[in-house]
Amino acid sequence: MIFVWLSVLCSVLVSVLLKLARRLDVDVGQAIAWNYVVAGVLTALVLQPPLAGLRAPGAPWLALAGLGLLLPTIFLALGASVRHAGIVRSDAAQRLSLLISLLAAFVLFGERLTALKLAGIVLGLLALLCMIWRTGAAARSDGVAAWLYPLLVFAGFGTIDILFKRVALAGVPLGASLQAMFALALPLAFALPLWRHLRGRVRFNGRSALGGIALGLANFGNILFYLRGHRALPQHPALVFASMNIGVVALGALVGLLLFRERLSRLNLGGVLLALLAIGVIAWG
């Protein structure tokens, strides 16, 4: 289980780095761009994926292009969500995005809907509603961004999961698909900060590049250790899945509440607990 816990740590570390970006004078857009350079290089060096599947006639380039487009944009949405809504709700929304891929499995890929999985979906949707719900002074101070960006994270990562499923069904190995999508994400990831630079809104700097290197290491570490976790426990995929997702929500909640003193209502905290329960029910089902 050590690999799963390391993956959890790396996943939450990504959110922490995004949370600290402004305090450390790191431009999030530049950091995300450099992150894909680091992740792409590490994928080639560590995973050494065979790329033959990408040259096959039926290679799913449309789905891969969609991943290349979505990854940097949703990463930016995650950064905005962490800034406006906090680590607790952002990490939970990201992990609850599995509800979208689960629904797609029933609608698009012919998977059988069980009572437990249906209960998990209902609990997950209730959890999401509880986490983004803001009332009174909190709603006025946080504004639309506090619920809009977590919803974008939820929808975006769910769509990414569906596209990953499409790529996997086409027979492309995970390492090769990662290599392709990191390469495809690079032009857009650099185009956004370059456009802002040309308009005089931001300057490229070494601090943001260093932040991107740290972000890339954490991002790749999350992927690598999750794969290692599945490889170390091949007979227990549900255990790895549940431990990863529940671990990220739980650790993200602890870090957000204790380290960054994030403000959550009782309803928001109830949503986090419902998210943990939903993930457990889905994994068990």
Automatic annotation (TrEMBL):
**SUPFAM superfamilies reported in the protein's UniProt record:** Multidrug resistance efflux transporter EmrE
Main localization of the protein? membrane
What UniProt keywords apply to this chain's record, in alphabetical order? Membrane, Transmembrane, Transmembrane helix
Pfam families noted in UniProt: EamA (PF00892)
Query: Domain EamA: where?
Result: 2-132
Q: Does the keyword Membrane apply?
A: yes
- Its domain of life? Bacteria
Q: Which InterPro entries match?
A: AA-Vitamin_Transporters (IPR050638), EamA_dom (IPR000620), EmrE-like (IPR037185)
Topology of the protein relative to the lipid bilayer: Multi-pass membrane protein
- Transmembrane segment boundaries: 59-80, 92-109, 115-133, 145-164, 176-195, 207-227, 239-260, 267-284
Q: Where in the cell is it found?
A: Membrane
Q: What is this protein called?
A: EamA/RhaT family transporter
Q: Which organism is it from?
A: Rhodanobacter ginsengisoli
